[in-house]
Amino acid sequence: MTTRTRTTDARRIVIAVIACAVIVALGAWAYGLFDGMIDLRVYRMGGSVLLDRQSLYDAQLPGSGLPFTYPPFAAIAMLPLAAVPWGVALVVWTTISVLCIAAIWRASLPASAWAYFPERRRILVLVALTAASLLLEPVWQTIQFGQINLLLTAMILLDLVRPAGVKWRGFWVGVAIGVKLTPLPFLAFLLITKQWRAFRNAVLGLLATMAIGFAVVPNQSWEYWTVVIRNANRVGGLAYTANQSFMGFLSRLGDEASWVKPVWFLLSAIFGVAVLWLARRFWLADERVTAISVMALAVLYASPVSWSHHWVWIIPLGVSLIRAVNRVWGLNPAVVTGVLWYGLFVLRSIWWVPYRDGRELSWTFWQSIPGNSHLILGMLAFLLLAYTSRSLPKQSAPAASQPA
């Protein structure tokens, strides 16, 4: 690539980012996001608390009482957003999230899909997919609350689909875990697929975030890793309809009954093993995006709290479903599968039923269906992928798997 080509590409990227930021600013104004985005406010609070040298895990967001629930490294990473005006932080953060949507689509779709379009139209297709994704309940919730899920999903997906020879592949998975602990099961995925170097790099990434936390705020780091990390109730009511996890489902059935946690642990363990088996099977067939997306299901189901905006993994998971159905049954069923998958998440059915103030505890059977729809759809996706995996070619390992 010539210097002139690199300069042209750099200009296009800068123009695209600026255009995205302008559109985001206008959209935030139109939808009143400048008065909302409560999770972004919590992130900035974490950075502000560190700047003011106050207690990170005693602080609460004024007006809502929400605490900071993430590892200390997350607060340190949010210092730049805390140091700029609110409007600047909102536009920058949302622009990053929107760009991550495009990156997720770009990484999820196979080269054969992009080959259908002339090179000049591919950017238009990517823009259209990104804009349409805002209709998906998990994606819009992430944007509306100013959540970090799109960034973490992009970090993990783009890191693990890289070729084996790329230096420090896996490191960003560890950093993602250091920001928000929910991606922790990906370490088990790296082990079971014998990606030894990626596992080592992921562990180093996690340890690096912990080391930075202890170096900057040692007392608060100790408090987090010894006390705060064990308090699942700190992040909100477990029975709340937005908690689309095994724990959320069981809590809506039994509230705080003594059987809820043991059953949650058992279900999570059984499903986790099944997910690892299926993810490994797809990985060995060199279906990397599908393997990573399947592994994300273990994260979503087993975590005590998986808010609906954590489910942004439905983007690559939907692509995986379409490819699996196309491989077994052909193009038309694959198109129907894609329309149903993304269309059902556009419907936002988890909000059709009574919620908040414990109303989830009195749902009827029929109300529990839309109220647990993310869980139901995720399980159907797992079963469909498990069934279609029978047609996968048997291979020893993909190119991204490294020797010890």
Question: What attributes does this structure have?
Answer:
mainly alpha, 404 residues, disordered C terminus, 20 helices
How would you describe what is shown here?
With 404 residues, this protein is mainly α. It has helices spanning 3-30, 38-51, 72-77, 79-82, 86-108, 111-114, 119-133, 137-145, 149-160, 171-179, 186-192, 196-216, 218-226, 246-254, 260-284, 288-302, 314-329, 331-346, 365-371, 373-388. The chain is 66% helix and 0% strand. α1 packs across α5 (86-108) and α9 packs antiparallel against α10.
Describe the secondary structure blueprint for this structure.
Blueprint: H1 3-30, H2 38-51, H3 72-77, H4 79-82, H5 86-108, H6 111-114, H7 119-133, H8 137-145, H9 149-160, H10 171-179, H11 186-192, H12 196-216, H13 218-226, H14 246-254, H15 260-284, H16 288-302, H17 314-329, H18 331-346, H19 365-371, H20 373-388
Helix pairs in contact: 1-5, 5-7, 5-9, 5-17, 9-10, 10-12, 12-13, 14-15, 15-16, 16-17, 17-18, 17-20
Spatial extent as radius of gyration = 21 Å
Largest sheet descriptor: none
Parts with pLDDT < 50 across at least 5 consecutive residues:
399-404
- The mean pLDDT is 91
Give the number of helices: 20
**Share in β-strands:** under 5%
SSE class: mainly alpha
Order of helices and strands: HHHHHHHHHHHHHHHHHHHH
Overall shape: it is globular
Q: Termini distance?
A: 34 Å
Helix content: 55-70%
Would you count the extended β strands for me? 0
Task: Provide a compact summary of the structure.
The chain has 20 helices and no strands. The protein is mostly helical and 404 residues long.
